[in-house]
């Protein structure tokens, strides 16, 4: 995939995350990892390494197993391999799939927050 195609993954994930209520982001770990949070809890990590254009999202284990059919979806980098997946550019990775993965990750994290910390419903 071209560099422009690689950037599509990152840019689509960022747009999807920033469209959700109560989202903040920054670089708490390293300058190469753009981390998105809801109420202080991580739901998306976007790498900025040109050699590893991936995003990492929280995912239910059953859903992660269903996504194994995509070669560019792997267990989450640097995180719990059962509850996080990483997506890279490749066949079948569409804007819709990326957006759905980001929104599902956000929902998983937000629904586990105490009611007082949950953002307004989306």
From TrEMBL:
The cross-references to InterPro entries, in alphabetical order and at most eight, read: YjbR, YjbR-like_sf, YjbR/MT2646/Rv2570-like
Tell me the superkingdom of the source.
Answer: Bacteria
Q: Which Pfam families match?
A: YjbR
Which named protein is this?
Cytoplasmic protein
């Amino acid at each position: 995939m071209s560099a422009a195609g690689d950037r599509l993954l990152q840019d689509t994930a960022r747009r999807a995350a920033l469209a959700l209520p109560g989202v903040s982001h920054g670089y708490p770990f390293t300058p190469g990892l753009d981390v998105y949070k809801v109420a202080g809890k991580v739901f998306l990590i976007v790498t900025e390494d040109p050699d590893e254009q991936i995003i990492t999202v929280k995912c239910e284990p059953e859903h992660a197993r269903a996504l194994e059919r995509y070669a560019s979806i792997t267990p989450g980098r640097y995180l719990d391999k059962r509850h996080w997946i990483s997506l890279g550019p490749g066949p079948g990775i569409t804007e819709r799939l990326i957006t759905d993965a980001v929104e599902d990750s956000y929902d998983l994290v937000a629904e586990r927050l105490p009611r007082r910390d949950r953002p307004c419903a989306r």
